[in-house]
Amino acid sequence: xxxxxxxxxxxxxxxxxxxxxxxxxxxxxxxxxxxxxxxxxxxxxxxxxxxxxxxxxxxxxxxxxxxxxxxxxxxxxxxxxxxxxxxxxxxxxxxxxxxxxxxxxxxxxxxxxxxxxxxxxxxxxxxxxxxxxxxxxxxxxxxxxxxxxxxxxxxxxxxxxxxxxxxxxxxxxxxxxxxxxxxxxxxxxxxxxxxxxxxxxxxxxxxxxxxxxxxxxxxxxxxxxxxxxxxxxxxxxxxxxxxxxxxxxxxxxxxxxxxxxxxxxxxxxxxxxxxxxxxxxxxxxxxxxxxxxxxxxxxxxxxxxxxxxxxxxxxxxxxxxxxxxxxxxxxxxxxxxxxxxxxxxx
Length: 346
Fold this sequence. Notes:
By secondary structure, this protein is an alpha/beta fold. The protein contains twelve helices and eleven strands.
């Protein structure tokens, strides 16, 4: 603080005398706690003002790279458009590279092309495989910060991960499933099995949710079996077909934890099989899930503040370029349980 601003500036901002500022900055006695907080607040205000001046007119080009179902990519894209407005007066322009499914060589080619053309940052949702890890390392070597979204890359030298605490999300889903299924007697004396549906085996975030769910539910309901399905890619038609085939083989399935989406397809498969789905836990408040939740077809949706995550990602880009004050690396977002009665406002 003393290097960035003079004592005179701090005193003027705080509305107090130079002697008081001197005692606070040098940790001398004779100053009340309230006055110390006043000096600290003045320094924070000066820092924000300094950043605003430094950001005035600065332009940042960032790339949003996602392999995800279009319903989720649209939600991220629209939320990012709002989040970048919060980092004014800096101006962010976003290049989008969105695909529901993409071959690994093509995804790596996209990342390498970004590296050659240049970028101020990459926001990335991609499978956790060595080829992607190596592409991220090449971007970082070029001075392009990479921030992973929603799902992390365990070995990649990315700048940071922003997104949900996936381990606690899986545990929360297991707790809700156990509570809402009730005692075995409520299910005609037979243990109820649970279907877990993901969009694929290579997304670290989904894998972490599933592992936590299986472990937690195993403690709570040791007689129930968890059937993990990772072949639908989060898309409607292949998911409905895969779930239908699994239901035909698994008559005890009575609940679903969907970590990969396509929830309307899962429900359609249950209906086609003439089977009830007693508990259905989903993820993310996209338009499809909101409609299903309000119609009472989803028991609950596990949610996190995506707007906060994307705003944080933009701040991390600024920090990487030295135009925002450094702060500790972010912690994963807390999971929220959303029912039809506590849907967040847009």
